[in-house]
Amino acid sequence: MRTVIFDLDGTLADTSGDLIAAANACFGGLGLGAPLDPSADQATAFRGGRAMLRLGFERARPGWAEADIDAQFPLLLDAYARQIDVFTALYPGALEAVERLCDAGFAVGICTNKPEGLAETLLARLGIRDRFASLIGADTLPVRKPDPAPLRAAVERAGGSLTRAMLVGDTVTDRETARAAGVPCALVTFGPEGGAVAALKPEALLDDFDSLFDVAARLLPG
Fold first, then answer.
1. In this predicted structure, what is the pLDDT of residue 21?
2. Residue 5, beta-bridge partner list
3. Which residues pair with 98 in a beta bridge?
4. DSSP state, 84?
5. Residues 20 and 90 sit within 8 Å (Cβ to Cβ)
6. How many CA atoms lie within 13 A of 65 on its CB side?
7. Which has the closest alpha carbon to 162: 6, 5, 9?
8. In angstroms, how far is CA 129 from the centroid of its own chain?
9. What are 116-121's contacts with CB under 8 Å, separation 24+?
10. 3-state DSSP call for residue 1?
11. Comparing C-alpha atoms, which of 137, 92, 93, 83 is closest to residue 114?
12. Which of 3, 19, 167, 206 is the most exposed place for a label (fewest CB within 10 A)?
């Protein structure tokens, strides 16, 4: 079965607003204000909670230490879990693209570096969890992307095999994951990295989700 696996943050959905709000809640609790900007710091949001905390501390607390990040990270996850879908929205055409693939007999799944429980909650809140046959998160396995094992598991749990699978993502992590697994990769250009992802030389670039079906049919011929 032909299988398309998606990254979540920055690929299927713009989650940056809620991620940054959670990080800023941590800084606010420390009396440091809101050092992260929802627009300018999108790319950092998609690199994860620790990356956001690190950037915020660099701006707001001279002399910060990694222990500060370790202390705030669980609080960030708690804040994010409480308000996970205030600003988050699917990118235009994402749901329609997934449904078209399913209607054509493709299996679809998700492989994300978001913790599995948070990913499950977000997809349920967005009303799309039942569209995906598999979901592998950062803590589902002992390793995470760019190790190929999570992608392999996402494909297999969706009912497919790596010989007829591809990954849709938005960052160098996704590109490296696909390369390590030996599958083609399509990177979106509408995420925070924009057209710069072309330098990663994926097998395809997606300027919008309208083109995904044709790309999947080309990279995974029937």
1. 98
2. 109, 167
3. none
4. S
5. no
6. 2
7. 5
8. 15
9. 116/140, 117/81, 118/77, 118/80, 118/81, 118/84, 119/8, 121/81, 121/84
10. coil
11. 137
12. 206
Centre a 10 Å sphere on the Cβ of residue 33 and count the other Cβ atoms it contains: 12
Residues 6+ apart with CB under 8 A from 207: 188, 189, 190
Scanning the structure block, which residue is given the tokens 């398309």?
Answer: 4
Q: Quickly name the fold that domain 3-14+88-219 has.
A: Rossmann fold (3.40.50)
Residues with catalytic function: 7
pTM over 0.85: yes
Six token digits for residue 211: 């083109």
What are the residue ranges spanned by the domains of the chain? 3-14+88-219, 16-82
Query: Whole-angstrom Cα distance, residue 222 to residue 21?
Result: 44
What are the pLDDT digits (tens) for 113-145?
Answer: 999 999 999 999 999 999 999 999 999 999 999
Contact yes or no for 193/213 (Cβ under 8 A): no
